[in-house]
Design a protein that fits this description.
With about 120 residues, this protein is of the alpha+beta class. The chain folds into two domains: about 70 residues, CBS-domain; about 55 residues, CBS-domain (Roll). Strand 4 and strand 5 form a beta hairpin. The longest helix is centred in the N-terminal third of the chain and has 11 residues. The protein starts with 9 loop residues before the first helix and ends in a 14-residue tail after the last helix. It comes from Sorangium cellulosum (Polyangium cellulosum). Pfam families: CBS. This is CBS domain-containing protein.
Length: about 120
């Protein structure tokens, strides 16, 4: 899973997103998520504020609220949380609060019905 940090430039982050084919990267500090940055944060927030992506940083525009679930929670719970908060992605944590991955609505939609009751990690 690709991640970034507050000091990364917006340009480098946008390139990382493009290369990974993702629209969001968790922002980590000491292996723990402290925010997320989305393609929308970069294109709308940064552009609207006149920020130069070559010199502006993730910490300038990232979303500081991180919606999470735990890797041992059910997929149904993750789906409920996404619906409740009207979001498309959740950062998945282990019980030590370290990032274990990201789960998206698309991930959930592609699962066969019988797998939706299992844990987020599939273990």
């Amino acid at each position: 899973m690709e991640t970034t940090f507050t000091g990364a430039t917006l340009q480098a982050t946008a390139l990382k997103m493009r290369e990974a084919g993702v629209g969001m990267l968790p922002v980590l500090e000491n292996e723990r998520p402290i925010g997320v940055i989305t393609d929308r944060d970069i294109t709308v927030r940064a552009t609207a504020n006149g920020l130069d992506p070559r010199t502006s940083h993730v910490g300038d525009v990232m979303t500081r609220r991180v919606f999470c679930c735990y890797e041992d929670e059910s997929i149904e719970e993750a789906a409920r949380r996404m619906e409740e908060h009207t979001i498309r992605r959740l950062v998945v944590l282990d019980r030590g609060e370290r990032m274990a991955g990201v789960i998206t609505r698309d991930d959930l939609a592609s699962l066969p019905r019988e797998e939706r009751a299992g844990p987020v990690t599939g273990e």
